[in-house]
């Protein structure tokens, strides 16, 4: 099976809540009817608005949401993309291979409901200074454990882009999905699982930034808090 990811944008005149409802109530059942599996829908909505100060963007064209699912073969995706196109302003598709070093606990994966906390969606591009092999080695073999140990993450999916699927797909090299508890939405201490310990928060943030700088160019990254809905187990 193959995992596909679609970045989606809503029309500027569409209300975010209405867009979310359309994705959940109309688009999701239509995709499931076409035999996709493990469907997740993420949307940058009001529930994560308090995290807006922490958005990182390499341009002003932030995505409105993310759709991920698995299919038997990406070759037969035309019907799926046709349905997506009916519910969004535009979209960009990617075939990826997923590594999940931190799987969400069962209790944190309610089907058809909003997942606890937030899902931070990150788009990465490989720095020119690194070969693909060096970049993957640093990210997967060195950074992964640092991320798990310094943050309050309870779910971590690393998606390496294999191929852009649509004509306007941006040249991302990776798309990351990280699940955080509710306290991380509006608190850096909550984000870094530091409680009220300011020194611990600062130490963990520094460790994380130092590790990220080894394989990320910060001017070539997009980081967007979203609400996550698992629509299909």
Written overview of the protein:
The protein has helices at 16-33, 78-85, 132-150, 188-191, 198-212; strands at residues 2-9, 37-43, 65-71, 90-102, 118-124, 155-164, 174-180, 221-230. It has 233 residues and is of the alpha+beta class. Helix 3 runs antiparallel to helix 5. It is globular. The mean pLDDT is 96.
Question: Which structural class do you get from the secondary structure elements?
Answer: alpha+beta
Task: Calculate Rg over CA atoms.
Answer: 17 Å
| Euclidean distance between termini CA atoms | 15 Å
Uncertain spans? none
- Overall pLDDT confidence: 96
Q: Which strand-content bin applies to the residues?
A: 25-35%
Morphology: globular
- How many strands? 8
State the helicity in percent bands: 25-40%
Q: What pattern of helices and strands is seen along the backbone?
A: EHEEHEEHEEHHE
Number of helices: 5
- Specify the biggest β-sheet: 8 strands, antiparallel, barrel
